[in-house]
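The protein record quoted in full:

***
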Amino acid sequence: MSPIITGEAVVLELRPASFAARALGLAIDVVVHVVLLILLMVGLSAAGAGLDPAAARALGLAAVVFSLVVVPVAVETVSRGRSLGKLATGLRVVRDDGGAIRFRHAVIRGLTGFLEIYLTFGGLAFAVALFNDKSRRLGDLLAGTYSVRSRVPAEEAVHVFVPPHLQAWAATADIGRIPDATARRAAQFIRQAGRMVPFSRAGMAQSIAAELSAHVAPAPPPGTGSDDFLAAVVAERRNREYARLSQLRRRNTETGRRLQRLPFSD
């Protein structure tokens, strides 16, 4: 990933697009632009049959510039770094600082792209992209941009429950003193535990469990594992919060009904 630090000192993790994804997106865009150019040429040939050769060449050149330069620049400017090929591959062009590209970035990419993609049949673009870590082509290097993955697989929801052998203890345990930051750390660990190596998972589970135990009374039954302890605390805390909110909602609903039954004078 590529770390980006915003003006508010928030670190964003942007995933640079792979070479294969960029190549596929570029191929789709090239096909679309070439098809557009062919259609324009066919239309100009039919409409300008009586034109002299110089005018025909001028219209042909205009069609080439429009299809291969103007259209890509306009699409990337309006869509803030997207194109048909990038939409299909889930990519987006951003600035080096992670922000959306502007017209000048799209112009530099479009003009350079005409050289490195069409005049060299893609050879220059592929050669440059192969030798940098973000698979950037020459237009990206000059414009200060690169492609990122804007569509990533959604994480599967992790359902946390109180282990059966800890349900009696959790129902009577005092967990109201747990700081919110510590509770969030425990919940985040549970969501990410499946992607951690066993050694790191065990060490982090013990560390967070030790931090939680200072705010939980009484202590869990002897022999309780760190993973079970964390799951029990996080699940019971969630259940109690849900019950509290449900009770508050019912109370507000009942209060509203009582107010509606009260007589009001004009």
Remarks:
- The first helix runs from residue 19 to 47.
- Strands lie at 2-5, 11-14, 91-95, 145-149.
